[in-house]
Amino acid sequence: MSRAVRAVFTVLLLCFVSMQALAADSYPGVGRTATAKEIAAWDIDVRPDFKGLPPGSGSVEKGMLVWEGKCAMCHGSFGESNQVFTPIIGGTTKQDIEIGRVAALSGNTQPQRTTMMKLSQVSTLWDYINRAMPWNVPKSLTTDEVYAVTAYILNMAEVVPDDYVLSNHNIADVQKRLPNRNGLQTRHGMWDIKGKPDVRNIACMTDCAASVSISSRLPDYARNAHGDIAEQNRLIGPVRGADTLAAAPTEPLKGKTVPAAPSASAEPPKNNVAPVIDAAALAKKYACMACHGISNKIVGPALRDVQKKYAGVSGAEDTLVAKIKAGGQGVWGSVPMPSNAQVPDADIKMIVRWIMGGAQ
């Protein structure tokens, strides 16, 4: 290496180090280096070649038990789903399993496309169940339970037999029987950086519109179906999300004071009414708001409809505490409410009192 080249290399290296140091000092006191355990807790993805798949196994029979206890409430006993969630099973045939392409996808013979119709990688199914299910307590399933639930779904789709035990050793064999395993296209830029773009367009920089009019919007009744979207977004980055709570103020409060949350040492609430701030926070903490809206039905009934139903009923508080604790179905429809046996009784009572007070 010549002296000139060596000098240039040294300058570039010093510049890079200086830039790194400058970047590190740009946000003093913000954040820290993640520990190995923290990285491992997030590094749980499973690739299509099954790298990252943990060892374990689960039978179809065990999967059915887990499904009925933790999955059927949202997806139906046989994956047929309900009025909220799209079906998982359906639209595939034995011929699809043989050839690896789902005919109903191109023929539009199925009224609604299901998960098993579109699924091309069994690793995607395993990974999604592992990281996102059940909806109210994601990542709570054990590794063997994830294998079992995956096996049960594959069994309902007639991919594996009733006595099948899925494991990290035979999951690659199951991949060879997925109905739409050959339906994945990789010859495009979304998969291969050298692939062709999946859309063709050119940038328009002339005669640009001076203003844009919105021709459609989310209906008012659906705005708060999943709570306040603004609260569910990151505090950093360009996207904040809209405040979708119907009762949320559109202007800052003027001349009003918001009561502070009572401390743990505060005296118990008078008139048997739970403090609004604490109770609402508990309802979110225990994922009540994932299935219940304040004034609108999501999966379960609106909380204010519950209040109306039990208003004036003798022993209503004890009745609701018992129902929330045990779970069940039939009172508000066929979709069951999961058991909340792990939630402390005191917290359930506070939530119930909040509901009976109108869920303010």
Keywords:
mainly alpha, globular, 14 helices, Cytochrome Bc1 Complex, Chain D, domain 2, 360 residues
What does this structure look like?
The chain has 14 helices and two strands. Helix 3 crosses helix 9, helix 11 (276-285) crosses helix 14 (345-356) and helix 13 (316-326) packs across helix 14. The protein is globular, with a radius of gyration of 27 Å. The chain is mainly α and 360 residues long. Among the domains are: 57-175, Cytochrome c-like domain (Cytochrome Bc1 Complex, Chain D, domain 2, Orthogonal Bundle); 270-356, Orthogonal Bundle (Cytochrome Bc1 Complex, Chain D, domain 2). Strands 1-2 form a two-stranded antiparallel sheet. It has helices spanning 3-25, 36-42, 60-70, 72-75, 94-99, 103-107, 115-118, 122-132, 143-156, 171-175, 276-285, 303-310, 316-326, 345-356; strands spanning 57-59, 165-167. The relative contact order is 0.09.
